[in-house]
Amino acid sequence: MAQCRRNEVTCGKNCPCEENCPFGCPCQGWCEEKLPSGVQQDIPLEKLRNLGYEPYYQELFGVSPTDEDMDPEMGGDYLFIGCKERNSDSFNAGIFGAKKFLLELQEFENSPSMISKATEHNGFYYYNTNSLSYCGPNKIFGFSPIENIYPFCADYYDCKYQVGKVDVCEEHEWDNTRMSVFKNDRNWAGWRCGRFTEYDGYVNQLSWLWENFELQFWTLKQ
């Protein structure tokens, strides 16, 4: 049995669900339509509305969300999480996934001397933890197109290991499909929205990032 538009159906050998849909065996095409897989780029606000999603959290990147903020009071089993420029009608980067997975706190190995591993879900890799080691702000969540992350303390795996510039890559060198946000912290909040991070080369632009970008959570209406 599996959920099919909130009704239980029996899945036979010819289950219509594609391999990249981790949520059981829904009606033909439902998963692919409502839950696009992988990190999404340039996704319009209007598309989310047309898919049946509605926003429940919208704050500037300089505001650190809590675990409670991430859980929609209006309910819903599936979420969209993304970041965008404040005045833009499209998200720079975002992901669709099951609420149960996205809100569950994770434990994974992490230290300044190792590459950590995010968990695969719906074609992207995700992390959400309240127990980072060696960091003052130890609560963080985010996503990546691959499993490798370097959360010390925000994720800058791409700059350190793929580009080789530690954490001072220029804007065009940063991976545009990663997001990293500190949770429940008075001093830290959003650190990167795709290629826009605290650093553009040796220029610290964190204040600009916090004032000009925003984080949003949407839930699929029941």
N to C succession of SSEs: EEHEHEHEEEHEEEEEHEEEEEHE
**Largest sheet entry:** 6 strands, antiparallel
Average per-residue pLDDT, rounded, comes to: 89
Helix content estimate:
10-25%
Radius of gyration, rounded? Answer: 17 Å
Number of strands: 18
The CA-CA distance between the termini, in Å, is 20 Å
Q: How many domains in all?
A: 2
Our count of helices gives 6
Q: Enumerate the strands of the largest sheet in spatial order, edge to edge or round the barrel.
A: 9-10-11-13-14-15
| Class inferred from helices and paired strands | alpha+beta
Low-pLDDT ranges: 1-22
Shape: globular
Strand-residue proportion: 25-35%
Protein name: Oidioi.mRNA.OKI2018_I69.XSR.g16870.t1.cds
How would you characterize this protein structure?
Helices cover 16% and strands 32% of the residues. It is α+β, with helices and mostly antiparallel strands. It has 2 domains: 1-34, no CATH class; 40-222, no CATH class. The strands form 6 sheets. The protein has a 6-stranded antiparallel β-sheet. A hairpin with a 7-residue loop joins β13 and β14. It is globular and about 45 Å long. It comes from Oikopleura dioica (Tunicate).
